[in-house]
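Example 9 (inverse folding). The structure is encoded as follows.
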């Protein structure tokens, strides 16, 4: 329809990110350095600009190497090929498009006290290099007084905006390092599923309980967390090599039921169980940031268990079909499916069904259609731009007014974004109100809780109505008329850095 002014905060136009990453083949390595004789040959034609890309990568590595807190830096430039999307002519092989990508690995000193600052500086260098060639990077944090070893990943493509501010990403990583029992931690700018490594599945219940005490769980880089336990006590989480089978439990703020986790942990520790993987959290993508106000789609959790022998196959199946609903039920989440398979050849070595139901039961009708929200609002093409611009101004005013009500303003980050399935666009934004700069713990009228209450009371007085929220810890409000100008949805939550407010206008599409 027209341009999209991408925001530089958590709201970003990342619809092409997954396709870009998923469409690449195995990369071939470029040489560590390129001499004049390397350029112009069959592998590196003179017009590819490889020297320019290599220079950009080398400069980026050198720029990171001098950042305070960095021990060492390594880099590589790799070449890949992806399909060009065109059908080949008869008798011809599928054609591909050559692409280049750079990766920079950074080792940090122990006990870096300002990881957020360091991450921000590294991300800026990666961003500059990405203007020449798509550049990603990883920060490797050693085990130290602040916690276990950890990895912070930056994923960048030519079409991605900043998905998660580096400072927030670093804070999320430190929250994971603070978990008792954590042996490693991982957080990524391009993936809202973080990971914690533990040395035994028996720790799953306690670690899950600690994670659910975090106010940030369910948002941003911690939209979901995978608790990984290797049978060899070695957890790679994409950054190393696990020498044993990996047992995984992916949770969000509500799923799976806390009472079900000990059962999963006991199964994972069974001598005849080779590996177990339970996905309780709904599928999420890099676009599913904390600023997204769309309800999380209802989903069916899934469990995969690999066992040895027929006896274990039947025993594990009996356990899963006999679990009581009170142990597994989670409001708004479908009954979990399971697939138990063994080393027995053919169908005789597999059992599939639904947790708590007899084998052979049909799929439960427990997944009502997810809410899609109001709208879209259909307007003539000449009116669309005016409405979206007006909505952006009203959303900005609302976020400023929230700060005024609290007694201190933040800096709103408001822009335009595509709606789901590309159906039009809308204005959306967020603000962090730094309430702790003015809150007085000894004065209840000037506390963070009081400011939170004043903000929501002002919305209700203006005609906004509390509605059910898609995420725990997030209060949501909508106007009586969802197609009215301004914010069609407002949400608020408390966080470690203040009061976070998100607002989104109705989607506007052009009538044809």
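The amino acid assigned to each position is listed next.
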């Amino acid at each position: 329809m027209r341009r999209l002014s991408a925001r530089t905060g958590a709201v970003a136009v990342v619809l092409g990110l997954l396709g870009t990453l998923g469409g690449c083949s195995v990369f071939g390595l470029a040489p560590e350095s390129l001499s004049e004789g390397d350029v112009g040959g069959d592998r590196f034609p003179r017009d590819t600009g490889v020297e320019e890309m290599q220079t950009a990568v080398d400069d980026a590595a050198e720029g990171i190497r001098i950042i305070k807190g960095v021990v060492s830096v390594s880099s590589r430039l790799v070449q890949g090929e992806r399909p060009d999307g065109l059908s080949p002519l008869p008798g011809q092989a599928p054609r591909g498009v050559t692409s280049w990508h750079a990766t920079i690995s950074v080792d940090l000193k122990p006990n870096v006290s300002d990881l957020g600052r360091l991450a921000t500086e590294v991300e800026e260098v990666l961003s500059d290099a990405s203007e020449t060639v798509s550049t990603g990077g990883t920060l490797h944090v050693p085990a130290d007084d602040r916690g276990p070893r950890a990895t912070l990943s930056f994923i960048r493509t030519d079409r991605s905006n900043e998905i998660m501010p580096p400072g927030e990403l670093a804070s999320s990583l430190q929250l994971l390092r603070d978990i008792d029992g954590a042996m490693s931690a991982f957080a990524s700018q391009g993936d809202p599923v973080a990971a914690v490594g533990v040395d035994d599945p028996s720790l799953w219940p306690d670690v899950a309980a600690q994670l659910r005490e975090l106010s940030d769980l369910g948002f941003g880089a911690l939209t979901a967390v995978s608790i990984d336990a290797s049978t060899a006590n070695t957890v790679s989480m994409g950054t190393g090599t696990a020498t044993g089978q990996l047992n995984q439990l992916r949770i969000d703020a509500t799923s799976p039921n806390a009472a079900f986790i000990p059962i999963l942990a006991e199964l994972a520790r069974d001598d005849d169980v080779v590996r177990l993987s339970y996905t309780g959290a709904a599928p999420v993508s890099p676009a599913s940031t904390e600023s997204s106000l769309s309800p999380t789609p209802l989903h069916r959790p899934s469990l995969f268990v690999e066992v040895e022998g027929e006896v274990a196959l039947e025993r594990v199946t009996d356990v899963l079909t006999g679990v009581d609903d009170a142990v597994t039920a989670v409001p708004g989440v479908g009954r979990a499916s399971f697939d138990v398979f063994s080393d027995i050849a053919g169908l005789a070595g597999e059992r599939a069904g639904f947790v708590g139901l007899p084998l052979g039961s049909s799929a439960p009708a427990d997944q009502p259609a997810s809410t899609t929200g109001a709208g879209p609002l259909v307007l003539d093409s000449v009116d669309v731009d005016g409405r979206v611009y007006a909505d952006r101004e009203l959303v900005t005013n609302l976020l400023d007014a929230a700060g005024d009500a609290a007694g201190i303003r933040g800096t709103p980050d408001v822009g335009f974004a595509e709606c789901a399935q590309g159906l039009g666009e809308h204005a959306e934004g967020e603000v962090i109100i730094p309430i702790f700069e003015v809150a007085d713990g000894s004065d209840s009228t000037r506390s963070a809780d009081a400011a939170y209450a004043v903000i929501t009371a002002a919305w209700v007085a203006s005609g906004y109505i509390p509605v059910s929220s898609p995420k725990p810890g997030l209060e949501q409000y909508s106007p009586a008329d969802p197609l009215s100008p301004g914010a069609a949805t407002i949400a608020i939550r408390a966080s470690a850095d203040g009061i976070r407010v998100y607002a989104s206008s109705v989607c506007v599409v052009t009538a044809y």
